[in-house]
Structure formats: C-alpha cells, structure tokens
Amino acid sequence: MSSTATTSAPDLQNYSNGAWQRSSATEFVDVANPATAEILARTPLSTAGDVDAVVKAAADAFPAWRRVPAGERVQYLKVKIVLEVKEEKQVEAIKPSLPRVTDIFQTYLRELRPGDLNGSAGLFRLKEDLTRRVNAAVSPNQVSAVLFKEVVVQ
C-alpha cells in the first residue's frame, strides 16, 4: 500500500556511505505487521537521485575497498541467543514467529561490520537492536530481552 499521508509510524531511511540518510522521496510504502496489520514503519520509494547518490558513494569507496586483503574483507559472526520472556505462557505464543525472527536476525547480522561490535558498547547496541527487531516480529507478544549465550567474531 502506498501512502503520502503523515502517520505515527517512523519513516525509514536509506543506508549509504556509512550513514543513514533521509530519502528525497515523497511517496512511501507502509511496512505492516502481517499478524496484526499494524503499520510499523514507512519505507521510501526512493528517487533516481537517491539511487544515483548511493551508486556514486559505492563507486567512490571501491578503490580503497579493493586494496583491503580478501581475508580482512570476509568476516564470520556466530551468535547464539536466548529470548527472555516475563511469563512462561508467552513461549508458546512466540513459537510460531520464530522462523520470522530467524529471518530478521539473518538479514540484520549480514549487514553488520566488525566495527559495529567493538567493545561492550557495540555488544550492548547489538542486544538492544535485536530485542527491538524481535519485538516487532512477535508483536503483540513481547520479549523482555535477548540474552547472548555465545558471540564469535572471526
């Protein structure tokens, strides 16, 4: 569904050149929770100018990136987590959403860079981001926290 009206849902931004940037788009598509139809966010229908800016940023970054040895470009991240809930009855309510949670984790974790995980602050941000994403996937249920059982970065 395309929307131009202002809603309380946040407008998503484009990630380009190492930063989140507002699109120059005037049209947006609603991002809805498939279980409740609640509008979670609006994604921009990015303009040709937005795309050109991303392509230029990538072309500008490529010469430096290609000089980085392949072993430094490829990183491995393994994360084992436990979802903490306040009440045991929520476990059964959340189980049907676990494939969606796994998909969200896979997509998000593939975009992380090694620098995103530096120090305890990086892991704290990762935990907060994962908790927020899980709660969007399992809504109207709620997860109290994402707890790390194992984090390996190679």
| Number of distinct beta strands | 7
What's the quaternary structure here?
Answer: single chain
Distinct helical segment count = 5
**Tell me, what's the shape?**
flat
**Residue windows where pLDDT falls under 50 for at least 5 positions:** none
Strand content: 15-25%
The biggest beta sheet reads: 3 strands, antiparallel
Q: Widest sheet: strand order?
A: 1-4-5
Sheet/helix structural class: alpha+beta
Whole-number mean pLDDT:
86
Share of helical residues = 40-55%
Helix and strand succession?
A: EEEEEHHEHHHE
Number of domains: 2
CA-based gyration radius: 18 Å
- How far is it from the N-terminal to the C-terminal residue, by CA? 41 Å
Describe the structure.
The chain has 154 residues and is α+β, with helices and mostly antiparallel strands. The protein has 2 domains: 2-66, no CATH class; 75-153, no CATH class. Helices cover 40% and strands 23% of the residues. It contains 5 helices and 7 strands. The strands form 3 sheets. Strands 1-4-5 form a 3-stranded antiparallel beta sheet, with no helix packed on it. The protein has a two-stranded antiparallel sheet with strand order 2-3. Strand 2 and strand 3 (19-21) form a beta hairpin. Helix 4 (98-110) runs antiparallel to helix 5 (119-138). The model has no long low-confidence stretch (mean pLDDT 86).
